[in-house]
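hey so i finally got around to running the thing on that chain from the lab meeting. sorry it took forever, my laptop kept dying and i had to restart like 3 times. anyway pasting the input first so we r on the same page abt which one it is
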Amino acid sequence: MSLVVRSVLELLRLAAIFFIVGGVLSFMFINIYGVFGIESSTFVGVGVMLVVFVLYRNRLQFSGWYNGKQRKRLSTSTTRWLVAGSLVLILSPVIREMMTLIV
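ok and heres what got predicted. didnt touch it at all, straight out
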């Protein structure tokens, strides 16, 4: 296959991963928060997308069609910062709810 075809296939694969995995995880968190009566926000979706991005860059990009020289994992510190930030974003509705109970 040519480089252009492999790149297009990898972009389609990337979009499918983000929409399917990201959508399922976002839906799951929104429903879990809904069960407890917590209104979720857009931050949950952004946090989930950060987790999917880290997953793709550190694992999934090495099993796809594209074999370019630019493929490399995120550094350990970058991975830790992104995952920590995404956890804060995912848990932000819970944190907001706790802050309203305290105040």
